[in-house]
Specification:
alpha/beta, eight-stranded parallel barrel, 14 helices, 21% strand
């Protein structure tokens, strides 16, 4: 027997359609409809609401082989296929994340194809593979943030069985797996939740209607989210979740959803006997997210730190438009490297108000903040999806890598950056409804027009070629200049792995020195000093030592008072007695 159940307090009648045969369901006082009915694995089913003849997918569907508008299919992980019983998990300190999009990571765009590239990641020095969202969305390709069936795995990627194989293959190679999950909104096509119950509110965020986290019926909506998160970690053996845009979760209850999630994940972690990590994306610069619950915080493990990205990118590239306006100085970079957030109660010109709050370095380790030279947003939300490698010199790319990978924060790479990939990463969709597709394309152009981009330069996200152009070209890594950058990334991650100076502790304030006029910065950690020349001409920095690693050969200055760095280069130096 299979238990079929659905929370549907809105309709007066709910029935189950199982392979074309209709069965009655019984309602309880909370609005749950249930029945035990014989069903085979893979059976197609859905629900009939009131007298509407349309069969709707299960809100907790595990698999949608016919798309988000089709019937659901029964599926559960095959315990015989797991080979990771000895997998101990991986904690956050010392981890190196690698963000990738399954559809664009390989030519085939499937979980099985991605398995073939895992050895590359191991050789690179990656320890955690972070997948952009893989829950079911309308069409065959999408960034993943238009998901509507949060429990289902996108069939065009290989479905739930493909994800199970991928996670098992990662664990066999010592790689942990993180999954990006989106609980702050639903996509525009295939969202049938409002027909079942009060999942949404009248409020809106950037992407659509807000989830009902604190209104009537919200207990069941919150349970829908919590159970979804626990399912990924428990049933698919995932090691971490990246929580998308948590600032868009409107929750006025005394126990915030994120705190509740952290509590339940901690219980699950104890039960499965391995670390489970929760990483938030937030633009609030609010350290309460990563403050322990015992100290009044939400108790999440870590959060992305856009301030570090902005500080590094602007200092190296010189870009200053939009939200980059407050960044770019070496003072800003030094502050971010030593304190985590740049805006920590200071005025933000982009927001036209004060923003953020300081991180308590006595209670919050630097590993709780993620650092990155780029990510899917910082590339894909540029009008033409251009990567830093398409605008910067190899030397500038090397400096950015050194500043991030040798900082005390948890580093994250975006797929292909390790060889300076030249393929863009564009925003792409494949909505099957022509009106939604046209509205998405028009909205994209209007958004960039507001920021001064020529609308003619903005690719149509519905054009299949937009998706095709965003796929990585793995042959690029064999190009001599690309291969040199790839080797440098390997060396940087090896140094980070072998030298304890680069993980676990904050950089003391006095250990960062810089000269804005000469355009150099030096970051000291223990017996090592990272010296960077952000200018185009050679410069003498007032440090000496044995070269551990360099992007271009440094030289001793006359009289031995410093080290001469070529333009756009870095050198990692060790004190001679180290």
């Amino acid at each position: 027997m299979t238990l079929f159940e659905v929370w549907a307090p809105r309709p007066d009648l709910v029935r189950l359609d199982l392979d074309g045969e209709v069965h009655p369901l019984h309602r309880d006082d909370a609005g749950w409809w249930r029945a035990d009915i014989p069903a085979a694995p893979g059976a197609r089913y859905g629900f009939l609401l009131d007298d509407d003849p349309t069969v709707l997918p299960d809100p907790r569907s595990p698999w949608q082989p016919d798309g988000v508008h089709g019937r659901s299919a029964l599926w559960s992980p095959d315990p015989e296929l797991w080979t990771d019983a000895a997998w101990p998990g991986r904690g956050l300190p010392g981890a190196v994340f690698y963000e990738l999009h399954i559809g664009a990571f390989t030519p085939d765009g499937t979980f099985d194809a991605a398995i073939g590239k895992l050895d590359h990641l191991v050789d690179l020095g990656v320890t955690v593979v972070e997948l952009m969202p893989v829950n079911a969305f309308d069409g065959t390709h999408n960034w993943g943030y238009d998901g509507v069936l949060w429990y289902a795995v996108q069939d065009s990627y290989g479905g739930p069985a493909g994800l199970q194989r991928f996670v098992d293959a990662c664990h066999a190679r010592g790689l942990a797996v993180a999954l990006d999950v989106v609980h702050n909104h639903l996509g525009p096509s295939g969202n049938y939740l409002p027909k079942y119950g009060p999942y949404l509110t009248d409020g809106r965020n950037t992407w659509g209607q807000s989830l009902n986290l604190d209104g009537p019926g919200s207990d069941h909506v919150r349970r829908h989210i919590l159970d979804n998160a626990l399912r990924w970690l428990r049933d698919f053996h995932l090691d971490a979740l990246r929580l998308d845009a948590v600032h868009a979760l409107v929750d006025r209850t005394a126990a915030h959803l994120l705190e509740e999630l952290a509590t339940e994940v901690a219980v699950l972690s104890a039960r499965v006997g391995r670390p489970l990590t929760l990483v938030a994306e937030s633009d609030l610069n609010d350290p309460r997210l990563i403050t322990p619950r015992a100290a009044g915080g939400y108790g999440l493990t870590a959060q992305w730190n856009d301030d570090l990205h902005h500080a590094v990118h602007t200092a190296v590239s010189g870009e200053r438009q939009g939200y980059y306006a407050d960044f770019g100085s070496l003072e800003c970079l030094a502050t971010t490297l030593t304190r985590g957030f740049y805006h920590a109660g200071s005025y933000s010109s982009f927001r036209e108000r004060r923003h953020g709050r300081p991180v308590d370095r006595a209670t919050t380790p630097p590993s709780a903040l993620f650092g990155y030279t780029c990510d899917h947003d910082q590339i894909g939300n540029r009008a033409i999806g251009d990567r830093p490698s398409m605008n910067l010199t190899d030397g500038q790319l090397a400096i950015k890598a050194a500043l991030v990978l040798l900082a005390p924060f948890t580093p994250m790479l975006f797929m292909g950056e390790e060889w300076g990939a030249r393929t863009p990463f564009l925003f792409f969709t494949s909505h099957t409804d022509p009106e939604i597709g046209a509205a998405t394309a028009a909205g994209r152009k209007a958004e960039f027009a507001e920021h001064g981009w020529a609308t003619a330069d903005v690719p149509d996200p519905q054009d299949p070629e937009t998706f095709a152009r965003s796929k990585l070209d793995w042959t690029e890594s064999a190009d001599p200049s690309r291969a040199r950058l790839l080797e440098l990334y390997r060396d940087l991650l090896a140094v980070r792995r072998l030298r304890p100076e680069f993980t676990g502790t904050w950089i003391p304030d006095h250990a960062v020195r810089y000269d804005q006029a000469a355009n150099w910065i030096v970051i000291a950690r223990g017996g090592l000093e990272l010296a960077c020349n952000l200018g185009t001409e050679p410069v003498t920095v007032p440090v000496t030592g044995i070269t551990v690693l360099a992007s271009a050969e440094p030289d001793s200055s006359p009289g031995g008072a410093g080290t001469v760095l070529p333009g756009h280069s870095f050198a990692l130096l060790a004190c001679e007695n180290d």
